[in-house]
């Protein structure tokens, strides 16, 4: 029997209009419960009658819970026992059970259901309607007499034999507890099979709720059901992305490195015009050093006009490597004995190698005067104490063991740096 059970909480069942259980149609929870009424039944005359061997059952039952507007499919069929054929309710034109058997089992109904009646069709009306929540909340009986204004669904009327399985596709647009009614007219009786359906507001993938009852799953809605599961192909895409991005970065870095080396290889900004170097006047001559000063002889021995006092004055001066002024700074000038140095790839490679050297114990390369055949020279950073020979032969520099150890250490550091750059002296 259909009663209200936990109506305030779940609204899952329907209360009857009258207190007597005989005035309510049954629920379909066991798939064999139904109720019968006469053709003239209404809300004021809702007493059920004996079905006289006629039954009704679901073949494909409706769901218990659906989403508003969701389509669902149902199938149902009538069942007739031998009592039905013996009692022949409303079939007065048939004298024997065999005649009714033949009529209900084999007789085709009119193509237009509007023309069907109990005289020319066994099941002369079959359809489904759904009572919307206003009916269930008012505690009215949702029977075959419900007015169209209280219906939320009314399927097309079908007709057929007692052996026919009827089907319909249904959707409900009223949120709340709705009652689906399968309604058949057979002879002079109406038979109804009912089922309550809880209709929920529409839900969508992405609302944060995994609604299994409306078909949401990890496959159909991973956002709600499996938020930490990657969709198909995403893992492979991430792996490819993680491999591709470093590869692209490496290619760009390699391309930039190659561009810089290529640019540095053909760069000729290191070639200096000898005329841009301002010579510093002294007593040395072009390649003179402190050694030359020490080797000078008195005027009597060499025939030179240099007086002995002048020689003594020169010996006291700190005369170091040949120097000049280039771009406002003092530079060391190393004369190259060759006058025909070709600017080929070998020279470019060597120049590029020394241009990138940067160490406190190395003299930094500045440039060369290769395009001036008369004055070929290498221009480098100027060391205030001169060349190695200048230091060793300078009487003003004490060569104690502390200085010697420091000197050797600096040389070793410079050599280690050169070897780390694959340059071997």
- Share of residues in strands: 15-25%
Q: Between the first and last Cα atoms, what is the distance in angstroms? A: 108 Å
Largest sheet: 7 strands, mixed
Q: What is the number of beta strands?
A: 15
Radius of gyration: 56 Å
Q: How many individual helices?
A: 11
Sequence of secondary-structure elements: EEEEHHEHEEEEEHHEHHHEEHEEHH
What sort of overall outline do the alpha carbons produce when their principal axes are compared? Answer: rod-shaped
Instruction: State the helicity in percent bands.
Output: 25-40%
The chain-level structural class is alpha+beta
Whole-number mean pLDDT: 75
Helix/strand layout:
Blueprint: E1 35-38, E2 54-60, E3 65-67, E4 72-80, H1 82-87, H2 97-106, E5 123-131, H3 133-137, E6 151-154, E7 158-160, E8 166-170, E9 176-186, E10 189-200, H4 222-225, H5 234-266, E11 278-279, H6 290-294, H7 299-302, H8 308-316, E12 323-326, E13 329-335, H9 345-355, E14 365-368, E15 377-381, H10 388-392, H11 401-420
Parallel strand pairs: 3-10
Antiparallel strand pairs: 1-10, 2-4, 4-8, 5-6, 5-7, 5-9, 9-10, 11-12, 12-13, 13-15, 14-15
What report would you give on this structure?
The chain is α+β, with helices and mostly antiparallel strands. The chain is 26% helix and 21% strand. The strands form three sheets. Strands 1, 3, 5, 6, 7, 9 and 10 form a seven-stranded mixed beta sheet that branches. Strands 11-12-13-15-14 form a five-stranded antiparallel beta sheet, with no helix packed on it. A hairpin with a 2-residue loop joins strand 9 (176-186) and strand 10. It is rod-shaped and about 150 Å long. Mean pLDDT is 75; it is low at 1-31 and 283-318.
């Amino acid at each position: 029997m259909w009663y209200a059970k936990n109506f305030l909480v779940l609204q899952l069942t329907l209360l009857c209009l009258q207190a007597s259980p005989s005035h309510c149609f049954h629920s379909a929870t066991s798939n064999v419960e139904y109720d019968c009424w006469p053709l003239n039944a209404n809300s004021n005359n809702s007493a059920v009658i004996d079905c006289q061997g006629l039954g009704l059952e679901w073949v494909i039952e409706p769901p218990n819970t659906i989403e508003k507007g969701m389509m669902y499919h149902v199938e149902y069929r009538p069942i007739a026992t031998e009592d039905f054929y013996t009692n022949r309710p409303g079939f007065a034109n048939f004298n024997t059970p065999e005649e009714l058997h033949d009529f209900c089992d084999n007789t085709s109904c009119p193509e237009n259901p509007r023309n069907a009646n109990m005289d020319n069709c066994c099941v002369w009306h079959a359809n489904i309607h759904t009572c919307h929540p206003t009916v269930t909340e008012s505690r009215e009986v949702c029977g075959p007499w419900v007015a169209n204004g209280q219906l939320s669904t009314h399927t097309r009327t079908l007709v057929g034999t007692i052996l026919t399985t009827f089907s319909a596709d249904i959707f409900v647009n009223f949120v709340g507890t709705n009652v689906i009614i399968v309604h058949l007219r057979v002879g002079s009786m109406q038979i109804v099979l009912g089922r309550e359906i809880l209709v929920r507001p529409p839900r969508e993938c992405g609302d944060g709720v995994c609604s299994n009852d409306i078909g949401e799953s990890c496959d159909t809605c991973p956002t709600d059901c499996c938020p930490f599961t990657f969709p198909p192909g995403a893992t492979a895409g991430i792996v490819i992305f993680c491999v591709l991005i470093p590869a692209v970065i490496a290619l760009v870095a390699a391309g930039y490195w190659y561009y810089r080396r290529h640019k540095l290889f053909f760069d000729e900004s290191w070639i200096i015009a000898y005329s841009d170097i301002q010579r510093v006047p002294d007593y040395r001559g072009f390649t003179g050093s402190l050694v030359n000063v020490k080797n000078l002889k008195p005027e009597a021995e060499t025939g030179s006009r240099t007086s002995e006092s002048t020689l003594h004055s020169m010996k006291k001066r700190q005369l170091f490597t040949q120097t000049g002024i280039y771009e406002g700074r003092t530079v060391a000038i190393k004369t190259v004995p060759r006058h025909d140095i070709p600017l080929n790839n070998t020279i470019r490679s060597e120049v590029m190698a020394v241009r990138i050297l940067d160490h406190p114990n190395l003299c930094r390369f500045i440039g060369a005067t290769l395009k001036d055949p008369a004055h070929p020279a290498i221009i480098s950073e100027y060391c205030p104490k001169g060349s190695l020979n200048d230091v060793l032969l300078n009487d003003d520099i004490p060569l104690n063991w502390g200085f010697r150890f420091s000197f050797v250490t600096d040389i070793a550091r410079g050599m280690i740096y050169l070897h780390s750059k694959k340059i071997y002296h």
